[in-house]
Design brief:
alpha/beta, TIM Barrel, two-stranded antiparallel ribbon, 10 strands
Length: 248
């Protein structure tokens, strides 16, 4: 048996995104989500999650966002200077405390907005946090493989609908070979989002809820699970990434 965690990033960025994530969890294949505690929909997201005990909720660290414009990546907003280890450490500690206050518990896993924790000094700080909490950190370790191929834009921010089609997702599932895989996704509804990834989110909801996806996963031998449902030794072991470095 192969295990598939389907994790929705950006929980809390807005009520529309929250609604789409919950829909994809209740009617589709989403099993886990990652909460952005600094965003305006965070309290609403936490309330929705607390009422749904089967949905694992992790911490989606938010240190800023970049967009691709005129041939280069530029900052849309910045929380801290990501090359300042002290600033990063203080902000991450604050976001963890906010998560604990909102959810009443520790996160089931840790990742970050636009994968900013892949680079130092953020990487070492987040890795240590995951070890202290005993939870997986995306791209750390080898037991849980991360796949970020299900995404509706290219690396330069151009629309790529094939990446979030039913056939595209079926193809992605057919290529997964690890015993435990985390499939990243970004379902939701655009309610005035100030981000580069907007209209694609509603299409992700539709595809993630398509019955054909669940049938294909079953045929390929996958069992859906969440971070909370993994055995303790596997939840604390971390992950290695096989995605395409998508930015959101």
């Amino acid at each position: 048996m192969k295990y598939l965690i389907v994790n929705a990033d950006d929980f809390g960025i807005s009520k529309g995104v929250n609604r789409g994530i919950i829909e994809a969890a209740e009617l589709g294949i989403v099993t886990s989500t990652s909460l952005m505690v600094r965003q305006p929909g965070a309290a609403n997201a936490a309330a929705l999650a607390r009422a749904r005990k089967k949905l694992s909720v992790g911490l989606h660290l938010d240190l800023g966002e970049w967009v691709y414009r005129q041939g280069e990546w530029v900052r849309l907003y910045s929380v801290v200077q990501v090359d300042d280890a002290r600033q990063v450490e203080i902000e991450i500690s604050h976001q963890l405390q906010q998560f604990q206050r909102l959810m009443g518990r520790d996160p089931s896993h840790i990742d970050s907005h636009q994968h900013v924790h892949r680079e130092e000094p953020v990487h070492s700080i987040v890795k240590a946090l995951g070890a202290n909490l005993g939870v997986p950190v995306r791209d750390v370790g080898e037991r849980i493989i991360y796949c970020g191929d299900f995404y509706g834009q290219t690396g330069e921010g151009e629309s790529w609908p094939e990446g979030i089609s039913v056939e595209g997702l079926k193809s992605i599932l057919s290529r997964l070979t690890g015993k435990i895989t985390e499939l990243g996704c970004h379902p939701g509804y655009d309610d005035g989002l100030q981000t580069a990834y907007r209209s694609e989110r509603a299409h992700e909801v539709k595809v993630l809820c398509d019955p054909e996806i669940r049938r294909t996963a079953a045929e390929l031998g996958f069992e859906f699970c969440s971070f909370d449902r993994l055995p303790r030794e596997q939840r604390s072991a971390g992950q290695v990434s096989l995605d395409q470095d998508q930015p959101v």
